[in-house]
Design brief:
This protein is about 30% helix and about 35% strand. With about 240 residues, the chain is α/β, with parallel strands linked by helices.
Length: about 240
């Protein structure tokens, strides 16, 4: 059973979605919210597994709301405006439904939820510690572009002043987070602080070579070359050896 929250400023849209969801025994609607502020409060209070999130709402959009949530539940976007359709390709949400929602499309979206269950369960054991595992999904926004990114797809975090650059695929957006704050949240079994300015994904390493003064030079799958300080090189060798 998945606990779902509907966040939409239109009462008729909420009622119609509730009615459609009655055909899905695996979904339990545990609450509703009419705007972003109320949505955040309900998420904190009810801890839903899934949110059906309208994009265009008064004061703040659904995208803006997600920026204020430290760790988002699974998200299925709902909208009456097709102007967001192109943007949906850039955002790795569970699904994106146009209003009026068709039962067939809703069924497809819920099937995707079931397929993601194993990954969801894998991350649950560390959520209470505040850690984010490789299977966790985070919301990243840089200017007008935004993404849902699995941490396993992030190969590098790089400090840029008070910001951090996030490397995944061909994208390198900036987020307002210090490298130290990120390090506190990331699982050290997957992410390693190579030096003062960079954290790497250990699963994205392509090659390791000796470097100056006892350090290491690491090639990442994306082509980046990372210098590992002498002190961190010792720790790296201890972690990676049998």
């Amino acid at each position: 059973m998945y606990k779902a929250l509907i966040i939409d400023d239109e009462r008729l849209a909420r009622n119609e979605l509730r009615k459609l969801l009655l055909d899905f025994s695996e979904i339990e609607v545990i609450g509703e919210a009419t705007n972003a502020k109320e949505g955040i409060e309900k998420i904190e209070e009810l801890s839903p597994d899934l949110i059906f999130l309208d994009i265009q709402m008064p004061t703040k959009t659904g995208f803006d709301m997600l920026l204020e949530i430290e760790k988002s539940p699974r998200v299925i976007f709902t909208t009456a405006y097709n102007e967001f359709a192109l943007k949906a390709f850039e955002v790795n949400a569970l699904d994106y439904l146009m209003k009026p929602i068709e039962p067939k499309r809703l069924s497809e979206a819920i099937q995707k939820l079931a397929q993601s269950e194993e990954k969801e369960m894998a991350s649950m054991s560390v959520q209470n510690k505040g850690l984010l595992t490789a299977n966790d999904q985070v919301f990243v926004k840089d200017g007008e572009r935004c993404w849902f990114v699995k941490l396993s797809e992030v190969r590098l975090f790089e400090s840029v002043g008070n910001y951090a650059k996030v490397f995944f695929g061909t994208n390198k957006p900036l987020i307002l987070k210090s490298l130290n704050a990120l390090e506190d949240r990331l699982d050290e079994k997957t992410f390693f602080r190579a030096n003062r300015k960079q954290i790497i994904n250990l699963r994205m390493i392509d090659k390791v070579e000796p470097y100056f003064n006892g350090g290491l030079l690491i090639d990442l799958i994306g082509g980046e070359k990372i210098e590992v300080s002498r002190r961190q090189a010792v720790k790296f060798k201890e972690m990676m050896s049998l």
